[in-house]
């Protein structure tokens, strides 16, 4: 399978206009037409009032003028309501597509990039940032252009009534507009700072909730709350800056309205005294002036909100520009080499953020059997597993799986052949069934799920859950640490992976379940390559191959017996856990 083409950064930018009309041209056109009808009724009503005033002066009939004015006003209101609903629907569907796209993109980022961004900051993109982006749809798509059109048409009609008063009106609002423009250019920067602070708060709070047992155990609730309070304070400061800027828009526009109103009354009185303006025309002009304030204010405030939306768009563009994991593979899928080791490292070095983690590591794990990686914490054992899975990439050397460099495998194919269980034995927040089926291309039937649970001694515990296999894990109902480990191992049993990577599989198991786990691992090792990162010697002593690591280097490799006779470092590790071997006799491993 050829590698999927990775879009260029400019192709991953949000194209709001194209996305907005995609599949919604009819609804968008209907919304625009209804908005135009509403605008037309808004412009027409003051002229009807002028005719009504003339009819009153001439003692004419009022029934039809009043009826027509009411019908036009009500029709305009209904048209505005329908237009707003259609636009809201289009906007929500666009945001739905955006959220789906962002979540898909985020899940395809490298682990390093996700950790650098922070979970809370990424969550803020699909929550507060997405809602802020709605302002571009709600305001920028139709409402802001129509408000501008309303202002233009209103000024045109007002100029027909009296062009001198129109000049006075434009001059009054121009002063307010200059002040508002000065404010708007600063709104966008303040909104970006506000959203960044919000993401940081969400990230800190998410991390604190994940560490809540530790916080409570150390009676650190007050200290943690104080730290979060400081983050919340920074968010409040940035929010107040934005609020202070945007709060200026309304009063400044109101001041412009008052200046215009006083100027128009004085100027209009002088024009009527000179006989250049009639009372009905002046009445209509005043109504237009009062009516003009709303769209002008909307344009001013809308531009400010639009800046906030554009700031949110910039944050989305920043996220979408982050590189995803790339296949790197070209041409046809590689066929596993039946004579090659399952996993082979050849002089592999790796550094994390400039800090060396592995230095010239070489070893080979056979197609069948148990290979154990041992060493003190920080020796680089878990990094070896992440390089096999291509969560990280070696800086030099070669990592091969089933006879081919990991870069030659398409990611999907590579991870289909390699099963991985991390130190945390992570489960999804979903049902037991969903977690068991996670790595399966074809959903196994329930009997196969129960057999896998039976193999890891977890069937009885799952049967006792409120909904059995359909019990949702992760909130009110959850499993113990050891049970989560066994469920993660049951998930491995349901895959057809050639290579199984286990990172500290016995860290939360008691001696009885640890013995069962060893039997399960032995069964897996008879038909697959099993690589185990282990601290407990009970997991290592019967391994076919033991690799001893220290400070990112390979010290030695061999069987447990061989290493005890020639590797002082390994012997020290054994002696440091001698009580384990004394308290829990280890059964001899059956030959593969």
Task: Explain what this protein looks like in three dimensions.
With 592 residues, the chain is of the alpha/beta class. It has two domains: 9-320, ABC transporter type 1, transmembrane domain (ABC transporter transmembrane region fold, Up-down Bundle), CATH 1.20.1560; 343-583, P-loop containing nucleotide triphosphate hydrolases (Rossmann fold, 3-Layer(aba) Sandwich). It has helices spanning 16-21, 25-57, 63-107, 111-117, 119-161, 163-210, 212-217, 221-247, 249-273, 279-320, 381-388, 411-417, 432-436, 446-455, 459-463, 481-493, 511-527, 537-540, 560-566, 568-576, 578-583, and strands at residues 343-352, 355-365, 369-374, 396-401, 404-405, 418-421, 499-503, 529-533, 545-550, 553-558. A six-stranded mixed sheet has the order 6-7-8-3-9-10, sandwiched between helices. Strands 2-1-4-5 form a four-stranded antiparallel sheet, covered by helices on one side. Strand 1 and strand 2 form a beta hairpin. The model is unreliable at 1-10 and 579-592 (pLDDT under 50). Residues 29-308 form the ABC transmembrane type-1 domain.
